[in-house]
Amino acid sequence: MKVEKLPVDERIKGIIKGRGIEKLYPPQAEALKSGVLKGRNLVLAIPTASGKTLVSEIVMVNRLLREGGKAVYLVPLKALAEEKYREFREWEKLGLKIAATTGDYDSTDEWLGKYDIIVATAEKFDSLLRHNARWIDDVKLVVADEVHLIGSYDRGATLEMILTHMLGRAQILALSATVGNAEELAEWLDAELVVSDWRPVELKRGVFHTGTLIWEDGKVETYPENWYSLVVDAVKRGKGALVFVNTRRSAEKEAIALSRLVSSHLTKPEKRALESLTSQLEDNPTSEKLKRALKGGVAFHHAGLSRAERTLIEDAFREGLIKVITATPTLSAGVNLPSFRVIIRDTKRYAGFGWTDIPVLEIQQMMGRAGRPKYDRVGEAIIIARTDEPGKLMERYIRGKPEKLFSMLANEQAFRSQILALITNFGVENFGELVRFLEKTFYAHQRKDLSSLEYKAKNVVYFLIENEFIDLDLEEKFMPLPFGKRTSQLYIDPLTAKKFKDAFPKLEKTPNPFGIFQLIASTPDMATLTARRREMEDYLDLAYELEGELYSSIPYYEDSRFQGFLSQIKTAKVLLDWINEVPETRIYETYAIDPGDLYRLLELADWLMYSLIELYKLFEPREDVLQYLRDLHLRLRHGVREELLELVKLPNIGRKRARALYNAGFRRVEEIANAKPAELLAVEGIGAKILDGIYRYLGIEKRVTNEKQKRKGTLEDFLR
Q: Is residue 690 exposed (0-12), middle (13-18) or buried (19+ Cβ within 10 Å)?
């Protein structure tokens, strides 16, 4: 179908043609003829790079220009939200306003009411539904990107409940590359279904074993025995390669090994550009390894990298400066990063009790990254046969079908939280009404038997009544209590809230950072660091040493909770080091963690510390304890000792700048206000822009004219 023939607003056609698109791909045309432009729900299951996003853009913009209202675009990851936000901003030319929202689960975000297209993570939109944001009534269309994640243990229940809430309230467009039971999903959503294997770039798939590459059509090619030769071959052809491995350390090790091989195929200008790239990285153990790999035009990509590092790598790969990325599977479901050749080194991963096969759906997601539209006529996806026979891998992963999606309302943690939300935030008045809502879920549609879900719901309701989240009146109607309502709004597991509430009496007697951090680490909402076997004795000693500061008893060695408890102690110790201003590099080295791990840990701890304070406020709080908790929260947010609390309240003053000011003698805001600009500019990390911001914040009119000479390699130079 030609773009010109589309039955949509002429301005939409103009923008699409402006991208150089004159003709739609066959599955795009089929999708847009399905009735989706007239308001029908649609499940669109087509391969990666077949143009799902463009279909969603046309549907969203056409509906908004025709009827007004809002469209919500749901994504699983913050990085994807940022990517889609950048893509969609082109539609601002037509007067539409685009926004992205991913954090702060305790807000209605009424400011979003001014926007037309809102990109959000599923968790963020779920929290907005719970807060009854007024603008949600104006949502005409919900796009669920990566809808196959409805089968994900961690986040599937959240996505399922969002779609259940929005069914009948808004049009739903569900997008996925790989769904084993797309028909079942479409039935549940009362949606049209478009499924296609068509790709804009042909995909060749094969298995490599000891120098022999067997393609699915039976053709055979010979290479040197090691699979590294496949990577070098792609680089020699002027193409990029993505290598998927099963662990972070493997990604790092293989990147450094491949870097030595790829380096000789780089031009001198490329080597200079890569040197410049490495100079932009922070100094820490992980980035040191990354710098070594980058010198040879190779990078690794995993969740341990900071967001800035991941973005830098992704951009340089798209530009062709980085030739090869070794990555963990998280990249396959993340940002749009296609490559000519995808190599899957591992088809097994360690999962708690041993090695298990990676699902077909995930491997096919990885293979789908092969082939770049506009650059390649063919993309190649190659699985390495290391232990399994090549034939078995061919049958399972290349000729096999992706697994069926199953509802994850069976996940007790997610289910508990959703039941509480239905009662306290969505006005479900009694058990019968609760069951009627659950009848609309994918779980009920799929299992055809509500009894198990009803049984689980009854147990959750008993738990909520017993722990004073809700009550029942004489007519057996649910009565939301303040504790339950606030727990749901804070977007935490009721079990987390119960742990907090149970600890309040002890916390009031001995408020201390270590006890509070261990309490936070003991909740189901916190992702703790694992205490390794060789570390256990040290953390047990620490627990006994600080036993008087803990709000729970130390479990016996034989207790099933023992290892988990020591992991909580390790996590609490990291947070304690952070607020005592231990340098980040030393934290990474001491605890063998990466920058991304510390960032996620601090983000979760910040949210749970805020939740702890909000819940404590419901139970006749002591003002001195409340203030202690607020100060500790600020220390956690900025990673500072108590004496810097006043300074970190200033704009753009974090732990390093605050300590530099303090050490230079500027320990109070008044001392900063009364100092000469030149004196402040002499402090490490304080430049003219920073000082201007401080003066504006303090309402002081001083001109900053004597900006100090910045020395290369300083913190100020890095932060610019």
A: buried
Say how far residue 151 (Cα) sits from the centre of its chain: 17
pLDDT of 458 strictly over 80: yes
Residue 521 has pLDDT above 80, yes or no: yes
pLDDT in tens, 375-414: 899 999 999 998 778 999 999 999 999 999 999 987 888 8
What torsion, rounded to 10 degrees, do the Cα atoms 324, 326, 327, 333 define?
Answer: 30
**Judgement on whether residues 606 and 681 belong to the same structural domain of the protein:** no
DSSP class of 528? P
| Confidence class for position 711, pLDDT limits 50, 70, 90 | very low
Among 151, 141, 158, which Cα is nearest to 62's?
141
The CA distance from 208 to 96, in Å, is 49
Exposed e or buried b per residue across 424-437, where buried means at least 16 C-beta atoms within 10 angstroms of its C-beta: bbbebeebebbbeb
Contact 113, 69 (CB under 8 A): no
596 in the same domain as 651: no
Residues 573, 653, single domain; the answer is no
Q: Quick check: 440 and 449 in contact, CB under 8 A?
A: no
pLDDT at 333: 63
Quick one: tokens of 280? 């932009």
Which residues of 451-507 form beta strands (DSSP E)? 470-472, 478-480
276: tokens are 């410049």
Residues 6+ apart with CB under 8 A from 171: 36, 39, 40, 41, 63, 140, 141, 142
Torsion on CA atoms 636, 638, 642, 643, rounded to nearest 10: 180
Which has the closest alpha carbon to 87: 141, 16, 168? 16
- pLDDT at 200 exceeding the cut of 70: yes
Strand partners, 344: 244, 383
Residue with the larger pLDDT of the pair 505 and 412: 505
Determine contact, residues 456/516, Cβ cutoff 8 Å: no
- What are the two backbone dihedrals, phi and then psi, of residue 353, each rounded to the nearest 5 degrees? -110, 10
pLDDT at 705: 66
Q: What is d(CA 156, CA 147) in angstroms, rounded to the nearest whole number?
A: 9
365 and 239: one domain? Answer: yes
Are 341 and 239 contacting, i.e. CB atoms less than 8 angstroms apart? yes
Average pLDDT taken over every residue of the chain: 92
Residue 353 has pLDDT above 90, yes or no: no
Pairing of strands 70-75, 139-144: parallel
Is the pLDDT score of 79 beyond 90? no
Question: Looking at the structure, do residues 330 and 216 belong to the same domain, yes or no?
Answer: yes
For tokens 């819940």, name the residue: 615
Q: Residue 202 has which token pair?
A: 């042909």
Helix or strand or coil: residue 243? strand
* φ, ψ at 348 (rounded to 5°): -125, 155
Domain boundary among 481, 506, 530: 481
49 DSSP 8-state letter: T
Q: Tally the C-alpha atoms within 13 A of residue 37's C-alpha that lie toward its C-beta.
A: 16
Is residue 658 one of the residues assigned to a domain? Answer: yes
Strand-pair partners of 212: 209, 222
The structure tokens listed for 19 are: 């991208």
Q: 332: which DSSP letter?
A: G
Q: What are the structure tokens assigned to 645, written together?
A: 């609390």
